[in-house]
Structures are given as structure tokens and as C-alpha cells.
Amino acid sequence: MARYEFKLPDIGEGIAEAEIVAWHVKVGDSVGEDQQLADMMTDKATVEMESPVAGTVLEVAGEVGDMIAIGSVLVVIETEGAAAAAAEAVEEPIADGMAEVPAALDEVVPTTDVQAGERRTTGERRVEDVPVEPDRREGEWRAAPAPAPSEKSVQASPAVRARARDLGIDLGGVKYGGDRVRHADLDAYLLYSGAAPAKGSGPRRQDEEIKVVGLRRKIAENMQEAKRRIPHFTLVEEYDVTALEATRSMMNADRGDNPKLTMLPFLIAALCKTLPQYPQLNARYDDEANVIHRSGGVHMGMATQTDNGLSVAVIRNAEGRDLWDLAAEIKRLADVTRAGKAAREALSGRWAASPRLR
């Protein structure tokens, strides 16, 4: 038997380290040749690491979220001596063009929507209509104490009772006029009681710490950096776009093979016409060199919601594109970004100073 050290290869030009976003093996597991070991994330891409040899995992480099330097040992595998020698001879760095995979997210687990007086599971019909509350020690459901007689005797519609349950209000303590408690009575109760929930309305949630890794960590870092380096402002104006909507409808009716026009291409075109008059808006400040860089082109950041979080793809040189070209590029970038196949250059560059559209 031999000890084979699988070192993290160079997975991109200028990359010095990568983050562990998922382990697919653990110490003691048997692995086959080309079996996936881990997902490693650089600034822009998540890359699968595969074992060049078969054997048993002896050591792993760290936990999810740890940064591993390029060239350092990622996994130690016990294997046959001949196989290890062959792997050493053929091991090569991973090419920049390796396919990207979605960054690992927090595991999604089914949730149960529980309110006093009913139990429902998301996406399913009502199961039972008895008071329940979670037993956090056993992970099961048990019946809650029966409502107080005073609450039982109060007349109220099902909608009012459901709202009171959601707010943790004991209907027996609500003053009302007429024959029953109404929503206005609940509003008055909240106003004068300070919206304090009734005692015993439910167990307090436990404090928890969630480690931010992978793409979510990169999004958080970029947002913090943008907030620190780029002045933020909000401008609110109202415009009559009746004529614009009529033009858009007319163009869509005769678009042929072109993608359907939304309002976004029109907004980008308007910004491209306006920014040359206000070049300070299409600029970035280099605080190290104490220099302001004004961009001649408009490289528009387009925020796209994906399963892995919010990603910003870049529409290069938007000022040189017509409406149909902008619409086609918007659709192309949105599709590849949601599929996790956006090229590195589509997600990076000196675009941060240009406006971002959502």
C-alpha cells in the first residue's frame, strides 16, 4: 500500500487559493478513479475535484468554508503503489475551461406551517384541526392544552380567530361591542396593549449561527465592497410612459424572430443616452492611487436571480447596441447565468462603476 497526496491544482490564472464549498467524501471512504472528491470555489467559478486514483481516504484538508492554497494537499488517499506512481506521472493542472457547477447552498428541508389550532404541511391539504405545538426534544407533534373557557365562549368569525392565533392574542381578553369580536376590535387591542403576545403563545426560537460559504459568501463580500467604495443614492421620478408602452407593443407585434421586448432594453438605451451628459456617474474612484476613472463605454451590470443567489452579469458596451440587440443579450446572459454556465468574463471586469439594473 502507498500514501498518495492529491494536491489542489492550479484552477485558473492568478488564483492563489480556493474555498471548500462541499465535500463528497470523508475519512475512511473508499473512492474510485475519477470519483468526485470536493467542490472548490474561486472568485467566479466552482470546480469539481476528482480523484486520479482509487483507494481509501486517509485525510481531508479542512471543513466547508476553509480556504486552501493552490498546490497544498487537499486529500490523502491510501492506494496501491503502482497506481499512485501512475497518477503522479499523468496529473495535470485543470484547464480554465472546465465546466462550472452550481455553488453548494444550505440544504433545503421540508417545512411545516403550524399555528395554534391547526396543522398544515406546505403544499398539502389540511391534515387535522386540533391544537398542536412542536415538541423540540422529540421532533414530534403533540396536542396543546385546550383553549381557556373564556376564549371558547367568545363569538368570532374563523378569519378573526385565525388572525388572533397568528398574533398570539387570547380572545378572552379582547374588549368588543356588538355580538362578536371583529378585526377592528383586534386592531384596538393591539394599539392599546402594545401588540404584546399572549403568554404561552409558543416556544422561543433558539439562537443559531449559519456559516456563510461558497457563492453566498462571495455575494456578501462583493456587496460590502460595493457599499464601501461606491456612493449610493436613490432617485425617484414619475413619468408618463403611455407612448412608450404603445411603441413597445407595436414593436413586439412585428418582432419576427427577435426576443420579446420588455421595459429593460428601453431603460438601458435611455441611460446610455444620458450618461455622456453626466460622466461622473459612470466612474469609479481608486482610493489607493487617488484617481477617478471615468468610463467611455457603458458596461451595464444586470442582476439576475438564480438558485444560488443574486448574480450580476455584464452587458458589454451597451451604448453600441440597438433595442433588439440589447433584448437578445439580456435573454442570453439571464439564461446562462441561471444555468450556472456564465463565462468568467461575463461576471467580472471594470463594470462596477456603471449602473446596475434589476
Could you characterize what this model shows?
This protein is an alpha+beta fold. The chain folds into three domains: 89 residues, Beta Barrel (OB fold (Dihydrolipoamide Acetyltransferase, E2P)), CATH 2.40.50.100; 82 residues, no CATH class; 128 residues, Chloramphenicol acetyltransferase-like domain (Chloramphenicol Acetyltransferase, 2-Layer Sandwich). The chain contains eight helices and 17 strands. The strands form six sheets. Strands 1-8-6-3 form a four-stranded antiparallel β-sheet. It has a four-stranded antiparallel β-sheet with strand order 5-4-2-7, with no helix packed on it. A three-stranded mixed β-sheet has the order 16-15-17. Strand 4 and strand 5 form a beta hairpin. Helix 7 packs across helix 8. The C terminus is likely disordered.
What attributes does this structure have?
358 residues; alpha+beta; OB fold (Dihydrolipoamide Acetyltransferase, E2P); Chloramphenicol Acetyltransferase; 3 domains; 4-stranded antiparallel sheet; 8 helices; 17 strands; 26% helix; 23% strand; disordered C terminus
Topology, pairings included?
Elements: E1 2-7, E2 17-23, E3 30-31, E4 36-41, E5 46-50, E6 55-60, E7 67-69, E8 73-79, H1 81-90, E9 112-115, E10 118-121, E11 132-135, E12 140-143, H2 149-153, H3 158-167, H4 183-193, H5 214-229, H6 242-253, H7 263-274, E13 283-286, E14 291-294, E15 300-306, E16 309-315, H8 323-338, E17 356-357
Parallel strand pairs: 15-17
Antiparallel strand pairs: 1-8, 2-4, 2-7, 3-6, 4-5, 6-8, 9-10, 11-12, 13-14, 15-16
